[in-house]
Design goal:
Elements lengths: L1 H35 L2 H34 L4 H24 L3
Helix pairs in contact: 2-3
Length: 103
Amino acid sequence: MKNLKNSNEKNIKNKINTTMKLISVMTLFLVPMLAFASVESSLAAVQTKLVGTVLPLAAMCGLVFAGFSFITGQPNARSHLVYAILGAVIGFGAVCREQTGLA
């Protein structure tokens, strides 16, 4: 019984040692990546994705919604169309500005 208890204690200590070694190795691999990460590059990536993908998609969805509103004869169809065109101008203008480097 005593040998079984010592064996279990050794297994637990081995598992703890193995876990600590694994955590140490993972830390050594993760620290350089965190050191080179910057908020500026992350924000630039978010801005690029927002301006290049989300704004034009939202502008197109707005134009489609305004078109359906106009076709179905909604009373606010004209204001929907004005807002959709205004949104498309802003959205596609931001894309053109970013692509030309004026941003």
